[in-house]
Structures are given as C-alpha cells and as structure tokens.
Specification:
With about 425 residues, the protein is α/β, with parallel strands linked by helices. It folds into three domains: about 10-80, no CATH class; about 85-240 and about 250-295, Rossmann fold (3-Layer(aba) Sandwich); about 300-330 and about 340-410, no CATH class. It has helices at about 20-40, 115, 125-140, 165-175, 190-195, 200-220, 235-245, 250-265, 285-290, 300-315, 340-345, 355-365, 370-385, 395-415; strands spanning about 10-15, 45-50, 55-60, 75-80, 85-90, 95-105, 150-155, 185-190, 225-230, 270-275, 290-295. The strands form two sheets. It has a seven-stranded mixed sheet, with helices on both faces. It has a four-stranded mixed sheet with strand order 2-3-1-4, covered by helices on one side. A hairpin with a 6-residue loop joins strand 2 (about 45-50) and strand 3 (about 55-60). Helix 10 (about 300-315) crosses helix 12. The two termini are about 40 Å apart. It binds adenosine-5'-triphosphate and magnesium ion (MG). Magnesium ion (MG) binds near residues 163 and 164.
Length: about 425
Amino acid sequence: MDEIVVPPIRIEVACTRGFNKTEQSCLVYQHVHDVVEERETIRMGTTFTIPVPYVLQVEVCTNIDQYMARSALQFYFYVLLETPAVAETVKNGTEELEISQHMLLPSRELHGLWESLIYEEGIKDSMLAFAESSMLFARKGVDKNLITCNRLALFHGPPGTGKTSLCKAIAQKLTIRLTEQYRHAHLMEINSHSLFSRWFSESGKLVQKLFSEILALLEDEHSLVCVLVDEVESIAYARDKISSNEPSDSIRVVNAVLTQLDRLRQFPNVFILATSNLTGTIDTAFLDRADFVQYIGHPTERAVYEIYRSALVNLQSIGIVEKEGKYNRRLSGSMLDGIPCYEEANEPGRASCTVLDILLQVVKLSAGQSGRTLRKIPFLAHALYVKKETDSLLNFLTAMRQAIRKVRNDKRLLENHSTEDDPSEEDVPLYSIKSH
Ligand SMILES: Nc1ncnc2c1ncn2[C@@H]1O[C@H](COP(=O)(O)OP(=O)(O)OP(=O)(O)O)[C@@H](O)[C@H]1O
Ligand SMILES: [Mg+2]
C-alpha cells in the first residue's frame, strides 16, 4: 500500500540574540507540541508565546485541523536583527537624494508586518509559495532553456493597498524559510522615482553605483539578496518622456536599469520584487520579465473587519480601549480573546450585540477605502472624538463611525463631487471591490 504523505505543519520561532538552538530547541519542541495538541483546529497565522528564554514568539504557518498528525511539525528558528536600515544618498550641490535603503534580514523592524497585512485568504501564501519555488528552482539549477523562472514578482494596484509593505514582508518571510540555506540576507530597496525623476545626466552613474553594490552582495553565494524596486512605473514614465523630446539620457537610464536587472538575475541567490501604482502604464520590457504579477486591491469586507479588529485588540491590550468580554461567543477557535472574528460576528444566529453591530456598520462605511486609510481611523477617532485617555469599546466604535464619515466626506469634498454631508448607513454601497 502507498504510504500516506503527511504534510508538514510549519512553525516559525522568532528569537532574540542569545537563543541557543542546540541547547534550547528541545524545550521549544515540548512547549509547542503541548499548545498544538491541545486544540482541534488552529488558523494559519496564529501566534503565541512560550516560556523559553530569548524566544519572542511562535507562529503557526499552516492551517491545522483535527485530522492532521501533530507529529509532523517543521520548525524554522530565526534570530531577529536589530541593525537599522542604512540609506544610500547622493548629493547634487546642496540637494541630497535617497536612492536606496539597505537592511539586514530578518529584521526586528519588519517583525509582525506579514501578520498585519490582511488580504483574501490564500493570497499572501500563494505569493510566498511563488517566492520559495523560485528560489528552489534557482538553487537546484534548472535548465533555463527549458524552464523560465525570472525570480521577479510585480505587485500593482491603487495607492495605500500595502504593496511596498507586502514586498518587505515577503522578503522577511523568505529569509526565515531559507535560514538553513543562507548565512546572511539583505533587502535592497531601490527608490526608482529618485533614480528617474531628476538629474538625468547623473542618473546613469547612479544606476551603475547602485547596481554594483547589489552585485557585490550577490558575489557571496551564502547571502540571499532581495531587491525591492519600488514605484517601478517611474521607468515607464521615463520612456514616455523620450517621445516628447526630453533628454535622451532618460532612454539610456531605462536601458541601463533593465540590463542591470538582467545581470542580477544571473545569480541564483537574488529575488526581485517590484511595485507599481499605475496598472496600465508599466513598462512592457519590465512586465515581460515578471513571472508573477499580482493585483492588490482595496480590502474586502472581511479584510476591513479584521484590520479594525487587530487595531482594537491592540488598543485594548494597552488600555486605551476598555475590554468588554460579552460578545456571546459560541466558538473558541481563535486564540485571540475578545472581539470575535468576522465569520463569528456574521453568524446568522448570533445573539444581538450592540458593540458588534456598530463595528459591522463601521466596516460597511469603510467600503472602498485603502488599507492605509483604515489604519488611520482608530487614531482619528481618538484624536477627534474620544478626547480622553481611555474609553469603552462602545464609545470608541461610535467615534470610529464619526471618523470614517469624516474621511469619506473630506474625500468627496476633495474630489469636488459634492459638498453635502455623508449619507446615512442605508446609502452605503455594498461591497464590490475585491483583492484579485
Ligand atoms: N490589506 C491591508 N491590510 C493591513 N494593512 C494594510 C493593508 N493595506 C495597506 N495597509 C497599511 O497601509 C499602510 C500603507 O501601506 P504601503 O505603503 O505598503 O502601501 P502601498 O500600496 O505601497 O502604497 P503606495 O502605492 O502609495 O506606495 C501600511 O501601514 C500598511 O500596513
Ligand atoms: Mg508603496
């Protein structure tokens, strides 16, 4: 009979300096097994702490159900680095321009970013799986004539939807998953905009300088190098300028960047991530090279709810919002106590609960807003409407409702569409925007 292949349950263990894997891993295994065996189901992304010195957090990175063998745990231990990012700047007269940022991974600064980004289920994980497969293919040396894998991912979509954050989070996650393969990991963030927007006569030199530094990092085969090309549409912008008789320097810069990116891709230890705001005008030469193109849209209703829930849980944990504790919860699948998850809040038979009803109202009013806007709402609510250090959840949610109404109204005024006040909840449009 064929042997049944048990899928591994991935467990990531974030540590601080001082953690000794040889001596302490057994203790970690014991504690994690205890926690994992206790529960029938555990949602992917669940985090918890264990009483082992230098262990900061344990994260379950696989959806676990009651039928899964708990023996198949696969551990990834990683030590978070405290080193701050170093900005690379160039001077032109008195002006100083930042062209890149260099960061060592896994970084303390990026810790928690992956979990904080909320998209439709499966999106983040398919991106990470793409990154992992890409690196595996490169490491194993697949025949490039037979299989194309450029190790280049492009994320595009409206402003404030978390594209840049997501790229950084993927770089951090990839580093964690590949800790056994590489001794060091770097994130080089290129600000394309500053490369292309000014001083065209200098741009060629800037590009050379920047890429020679990245190439130097790549020479070390024990280093993983993630390159983030932010706002890549600047490249397309530069090409547009060519047609309108702008300096011919721009064409040279565009070509230099594309050639340099091709050079980078010759190294098996590079992974390139790019972001763009402008879906329609991404340079085709660049687009051709990307083997993973993902649209990132505004959060769906479930994502909005979870973004607000995570913010409120945080405010409750630090005492700015009081804990409530009467949500009539029937399930206890989630490890987060307090405000229930979206599915529970929307259960047809749920007992009436004013707090949850207002939260769901705020969520409805937030349709079509970017993640960036949503993350500001709790702060605006506190600053503009709460006006005291601590308040009840009910009052805080009422303040959030006022805040989102204000934001919507301000946006409408900005767009000059209307000067009227915000419509009532009945007029709130149903959700139609989804992350694809
Ligand atoms: N889906 C989301 N879930 C949680 N947080 C989000 C989401 N989308 C955006 N954010 C938050 O919004 C902020 C802005 O994100 P970021 O700068 O990465 O967006 P962006 O898409 O790169 O924007 P831009 O196109 O303007 O460069 C971050 O603090 C991020 O955490
Ligand atoms: Mg961005």
